[in-house]
Amino acid sequence: MEVHHHPHVENLPAGQAGKKFKEYFLEFLMVFLAVTLGFFAEGLREHIADKKKEKQIIAALVNDMEKDTAKLDNIIHKYMPQHSAWTDSVDIYINTLPLKGNEIKITKALINATNWNLYSAPEVALNILKNSGTFNLIRNEKVKTEIIEYNSIINQYISYSQYMIAVEHSIDTATTTIIKRDALRKLIERVYVITNAEFGSIQDSDIPQTDLLKTYDKNVFTTYLKKLDVMDYLLHDLFYLYEKIEKEEINLMEILRKEYHLQ
């Protein structure tokens, strides 16, 4: 027959039992406080890290927009007036001058009038808005609203510029029917050198001393002018959008510098 042994229960005096309870309670309290403090410390650490990352993002955005406003300022005040002047020159030369004997003058104006320098939006701003996790690090609602407003203008420009690229391609294709291939290659190479250094125009000395034109048919040049007029209209329409973007960037930078105490 199996015998069951009952556990021996130690009967402690009331004082000792109370002491044991206090010890257990203190141990529990210490563990609870340690876990709680650890939880809050981790939350605080993440908060500090997020704030630091937020400020780094904003500082990078401001730095990017500073460069962008300088680029826009050049496009607005240097490139656009030059481009308009050369477009006017092409129109005047083709409509008033004989094509033969004026090949260099016409070619120079035509190449300068088709030296496209369209604006491209700053990469940091676009990356911030594409990445929802990055954007959500920005906790200042006023700042988020201003960035969204800025983004809407950028999107408006991007949509508009897609159409312009198609028109630009059409004109570039038409240029190949007017200027001979070897001469055009040398001219494009020279344009890239000048444009990469700064906004500028090719001069007579940049024109290769070779046969330049494929055709002397006035109708071909008149048709070409119509395409160029469309692009000129679009660029002037775009001019006001450039000014709007620049104004919004300057406004946004002022807000960011103030809110985040940036230099």
Notes on the protein architecture:
- 77% of the residues lie in helices and 0% in strands.
- The protein has one domain.
- It has 263 residues and is mainly α.
Question: Topology, pairings included?
Answer:
Elements: H1 14-96, H2 103-113, H3 123-130, H4 132-136, H5 141-175, H6 181-197, H7 218-260
The radius of gyration over CA amounts to 35 Å
Distance between the termini: 90 Å
Number of self-contained structural domains: 1
Coarse morphology: rod-shaped
Strand content: under 5%
Could you tell me the number of beta strands?
0
Which structural class matches the secondary elements? Answer: mainly alpha
Question: How many strands, what sense, and barrel or not for the largest sheet?
Answer: none
Mean pLDDT: 82
Key attributes of the depicted protein:
mainly alpha; single chain; rod-shaped; 263 residues; 77% helix
Summarize the structure.
The protein is built from 7 helices and no strands. With 263 residues, the protein is an all-alpha fold.
